[in-house]
Amino acid sequence: MAIFSVYVVNKAGGLIYQYDNYVPRTEVEKTFSFPLDLVLKIHDEKVVVSFGQRDGIRVGHALLSINGVDVNGKYTAEGKEIQEYLKDPANYPVSIKFGRQRLSSNEKLMLASMFHSLFAIGSQLSPEVGSSGIEMLETDMFKLHCFQTLTGIKFIVLADPRQSGIDALLRKIYEIYSDFALKNPFYSLEMPIRCELFDQNLKMALEIAEKAGTFGPGS
Amino acid sequence: MTVHNFYIFDRNGSCLHYSEWNRKKQAGISKEEEFKLMYGMLFSIRSFISKMSPLDMKDGFLAFQTSRYKLHYYETPTGIKLVMNTDLGVPNCRDTLQQIYSTLYVEYIVKNPLCVLGESLQSDLFNTKLDSFIRALPFFSVRAA
């Protein structure tokens, strides 16, 4: 039971705060001999498995490191192209680590704005009158909860599907936002949140929520 | 507890079938535009969750809910997407959508030599069977106007 991450999106759809609480790392390291039986392709400046799923290495996993040294996009740490490196039988046996790609901060910005639009479309396509946007999105691996305030700020929480009490957590995050970001005289509205007290209190609230406690009036 | 409407899309984005039972509010745009918007939204949601997901996904996007309705989604490996909008009281109906696909779509459309796959479904038998199936669902009840 875990809360994976928290995103805060402003009125215009821009990401103003992001925190990764718990990111499960799925990484598999294996030693390979020539020829490599996985098919790799370049996708988004990274080397990604496109065919040959086996032993925990799935399609879509990115190549993270070769022989223990982290790769740099589609080049090794020394600057050689990975595809060329792996075609040369002299470099084998080689130990490669594959895993799920981490999101860069640019990608997080893009995804937050994408969700902002999807939220609005969910409201527009509603068969019922007076519907809000997407409040909860369910997949088999995570549940995304969203709370939109009256001023248009969205608080988005990604959590385990079995985690309960997220509605209370979203209201609590709104309270923390208004106490430590809005009341901060150096914070400008709609701008990225860089307030230490906001970070600290958010972490404490997430810990309480994970333990499935309730928020008392004093917390 | 009720079912509002139901869409079937193919892998290219064309809407094969649409029916509604209890829809209170139209989208304010033409039906074609609404189908395109719905398909576009589902495509974007699928791409969004494949990037956001902290772990590798098996089934993918299941459903979303707003303050008034819940959208259930089921996609077959061939790219046929079944989408059902219901009200909030309905629990997970992925099995229902799977049943609609296997007992209605496969039986009356795929096995029908006159139905051309990829075009809007013209089978009256399919329409009537689907209608009676939806009305027979335990969570369907026609609301008093």
Provide a brief overview of the structure.
The complex is a heterodimer of chains A (219) and B (145). Chain A has 219 residues and is α+β, with helices and mostly antiparallel strands.
Overview of the structural elements:
The complex is a heterodimer of chains A (219) and B (145). By secondary structure, chain A is an alpha+beta fold. Chain A has four helices and eleven strands; from the N terminus they run E-E-E-E-E-E-E-H-E-H-E-E-E-H-H. Chain A has helices spanning 82-87, 105-124, 166-182, 196-210; strands at 3-9, 15-20, 27-32, 39-43, 46-51, 62-66, 69-70, 94-99, 136-139, 143-148, 154-159. In chain A, the strands form three sheets. Chain A has a five-stranded antiparallel β-sheet, with helices on both faces. A four-stranded antiparallel β-sheet of chain A has the order 3-8-6-7, with no helix packed on it. The longest helix of chain A has 20 residues, at 105-124. Chain A is elongated. The model of chain A has no long low-confidence stretch (mean pLDDT 88). With 145 residues, chain B is of the alpha+beta class. Helix content of chain B is 35%, strand content 21%. A five-stranded antiparallel β-sheet of chain B has the order 2-1-5-4-3. In chain B, strand 3 and strand 4 (70-75) form a beta hairpin. In chain B, helix 2 (94-110) runs antiparallel to helix 3. The two termini of chain B are 14 Å apart.
List the helices and strands and how they pair.
The complex is a heterodimer of chains A (219) and B (145).
Chain A lengths: L2 E7 L5 E6 L6 E6 L6 E5 L2 E6 L10 E5 L2 E2 L11 H6 L6 E6 L5 H20 L11 E4 L3 E6 L5 E6 L6 H17 L13 H15 L9
Antiparallel strand pairs in A: 1-2, 1-11, 3-8, 4-5, 6-7, 6-8, 9-10, 10-11
Chain B lengths: L2 E7 L5 E6 L10 H22 L8 E5 L4 E6 L5 E6 L7 H17 L13 H12 L10
Antiparallel strand pairs in B: 1-2, 1-5, 3-4, 4-5
Helix pairs in contact in B: 2-3
